[in-house]
Amino acid sequence: MKKVAISACLTGKECRYDATDNFNAKLMARLDGYELIPFCPEDYAFGSPRPTMDLVEVEDEVKAISNKTGADLSVAVEGYAKQFFNTHTDIELFIGKDRSPSCGVCSAKVYDTEKKLLTEQAVGLMAKEAIARGITSVDAEEFRG
Ligand code: SF4
Question: Which domain holds residue 35?
Answer without folding.
Answer: 3-142
